[in-house]
């Protein structure tokens, strides 16, 4: 794929209530190509009245007497599978749009944004098709107790720009599978892909009002979160925004799922094979995926002191070997950061790391390119876990290599973080790796590999969030329990 294949379809209407409707406001959002800094087609910016319309349409779809929630699960599954197929038919356009807007290399976007959302829809369709029996329990006081799950209602989904399609589908697929309707508010940085998503849903024949898209900034997002017609909020993004949303939901006693920031540990055990030919791909996904703009990355590399220099050398060679370039070039492994603001933030952390005595072994600056918000993949040695760059979620291609004495020390350092979302253990003994993984206080962790798998819960502890997405647990999060004493 080349930059010239970026979809230039323009949109002047919003997808609300199963229709393309005139926006209530006059504003627009112009996403910028992160590699070239050129403007992409503008889309209408949603305002509060659009949120009202979207929530109203979602409510009507949910309350319809023979609506989606009342359908046989297999019938809902069929529509979800058609939705998956329509997304697959648009995969190339989707990959190009996401990559242009946020700088994700097309090689990465092809695996994630272009195919993971369809996989999720098919996975949840599969759960709907699985046979299920009523949950009837013998009551301790006589009678039978029936436990049922009802769809939770109208879902507000607020999604970030780093994996706009995949993270939206973490919410859309289980919400629809559960019988809910949903209003999605994409991030202003990545809006074009959200229109293509709506197009796919429409082509799949998703009933009107089940999926509504209102692209807007944080104020309209806050309005949606607090909207009286919303029954549940699902958010992915920064811990700061997550706290604000959590406060609102606390006050309203509104169920909320928060998938927030991370600063995970990649623990290299003393028996790890550091042959990059063998582990390079897995290491890339676990530590630098999407130009470092991924919430679960193990950006604190914990190295045994006995092999500290060897680990620094391996990561230096690894980061230095990555091809940095235009996100639209299939050979690119590391593209630009999503926004100028994001690069400023990352460069601020690099300067702070230097000032705190960190030693940069590779990168540290901008590559020789005159356009795009690029930062070279950067490795810091001689930093400890207290350094600012070891504490904060940098959200860029910056790794810190931190030494440890023994496995207890490694686990203690891994756990000495405000966050607890992802992480990895690197070892030639996977059982030993799993034993260490169990001691890390984190929602998810990998042994010699890491990829959020749709079959199992994904989410974090501490400042990384509340609740889980994916797996059957992620479906349950869009239901409310009802007990009937019979
Ligand atoms: P953000 O959290 O501010 O924005 C994410 C989404 O939430 C956007 O759609 C935004 O419009 C919306 N939003 C923000 N505040 C809101 C509020 N109070 N109510 C309702 N909606 C709200 O993230 P950002 O400003 O785009 O990025 C800042 C930092 O956040 C990054 O540098 C990175 O550290 C972190 N981040 C983390 C993730 C993640 O997946 N964990 C994703 C994106 C950004």
Automatic annotation (TrEMBL):
Q: To which species is this protein native? A: Tsukamurella tyrosinosolvens
Q: Does the keyword Oxidoreductase apply?
A: yes
Q: Which InterPro entries match?
A: Ald_DH/histidinol_DH (IPR016161), Ald_DH_C (IPR016163), Ald_DH_CS_GLU (IPR029510), Ald_DH_N (IPR016162), Aldehyde_DH_dom (IPR015590)
Name of this chain's protein: Acyl-CoA reductase
- All copies of the Aldehyde dehydrogenase domain together span 20-484
List the molecular function annotations (GO) for this entry: oxidoreductase activity, acting on the aldehyde or oxo group of donors, NAD or NADP as acceptor
Keywords of this entry: Oxidoreductase
Entry keyword annotation includes Oxidoreductase: yes
Active site (record annotation): 259
Top-level lineage group: Bacteria
Family to which the UniProt record says this protein belongs: Belongs to the aldehyde dehydrogenase family.
Q: What is the lineage of its organism?
A: Bacteria, Bacillati, Actinomycetota, Actinomycetes, Mycobacteriales
């Amino acid at each position: 794929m080349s930059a010239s294949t970026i979809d230039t379809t323009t949109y002047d209407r919003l997808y609300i209530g199963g229709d393309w409707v005139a926006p209530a406001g006059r504003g627009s959002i112009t996403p910028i190509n992160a590699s070239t800094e050129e403007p992409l087609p503008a889309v209408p910016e949603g305002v509060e009245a659009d949120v009202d319309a979207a929530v109203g349409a979602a409510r009507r779809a949910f309350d319809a007497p023979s609506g989606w929630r009342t359908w046989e699960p297999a019938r809902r599954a069929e529509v979800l599978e058609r939705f998956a197929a329509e997304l697959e038919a648009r995969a190339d356009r989707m990959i190009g749009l996401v990559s242009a807007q946020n700088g994700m290399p097309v090689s990465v976007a092809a695996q994630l944004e272009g195919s993971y959302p369809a996989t999720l829809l098919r996975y949840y369709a599969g759960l709907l098709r699985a046979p299920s029996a009523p949950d009837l329990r013998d009551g301790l006081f006589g009678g039978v107790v029936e436990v049922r799950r009802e769809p939770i209602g109208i879902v507000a989904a607020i999604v970030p720009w780093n994996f706009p399609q995949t993270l939206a589908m973490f919410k859309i697929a289980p919400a629809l599978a559960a019988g809910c309707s949903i209003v999605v508010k994409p991030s202003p940085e990545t809006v074009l892909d959200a229109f293509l998503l709506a197009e796919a849903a429409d082509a799949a024949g998703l009933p009107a009002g089940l999926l509504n898209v209102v692209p807007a900034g944080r104020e309209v997002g806050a309005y949606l979160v607090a909207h009286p017609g919303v029954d549940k909020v699902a958010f992915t993004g920064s811990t700061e925004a997550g706290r604000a949303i959590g406060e609102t939901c606390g006050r309203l006693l509104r169920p909320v799922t928060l998938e927030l920031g991370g600063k995970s540990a990649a623990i290299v055990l003393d028996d790890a094979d550091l042959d990059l030919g063998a582990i390079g791909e897995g290491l890339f996904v676990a530590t630098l995926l999407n130009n470092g703009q991924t919430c679960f990355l193990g950006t604190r590399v914990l190295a045994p002191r006995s092999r500290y220099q060897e680990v620094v050398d391996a990561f230096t060679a690894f980061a230095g070997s990555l091809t940095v370039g235009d996100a639209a070039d299939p050979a690119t492994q590391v593209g630009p950061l999503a926004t100028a603001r994001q690069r400023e933030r990352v460069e601020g952390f690099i300067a702070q790391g230097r000032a705190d005595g960190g030693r940069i072994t590779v990168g540290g600056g901008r590559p020789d390119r005159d356009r795009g918000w690029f930062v070279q993949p950067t490795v810091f040695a001689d930093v400890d876990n207290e350094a600012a760059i070891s504490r904060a979620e940098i959200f860029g291609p910056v790794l810190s290599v931190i030494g440890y004495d023994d496995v207890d020390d490694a686990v203690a350092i891994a756990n000495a973080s405000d966050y607890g979302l992802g992480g990895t253990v690197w070892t030639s003994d996977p059982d030993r790796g799993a034993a260490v993984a169990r001691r890390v206080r984190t929602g998810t962790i990998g042994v010699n590999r890491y990829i959020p798998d749709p079959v199992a819960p994904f989410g974090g502890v501490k400042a990384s969030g509340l609740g889980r997405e994916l797996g059957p647990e992620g479906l349950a999060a869009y239901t409310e329990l009802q007990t009937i004493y019979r």
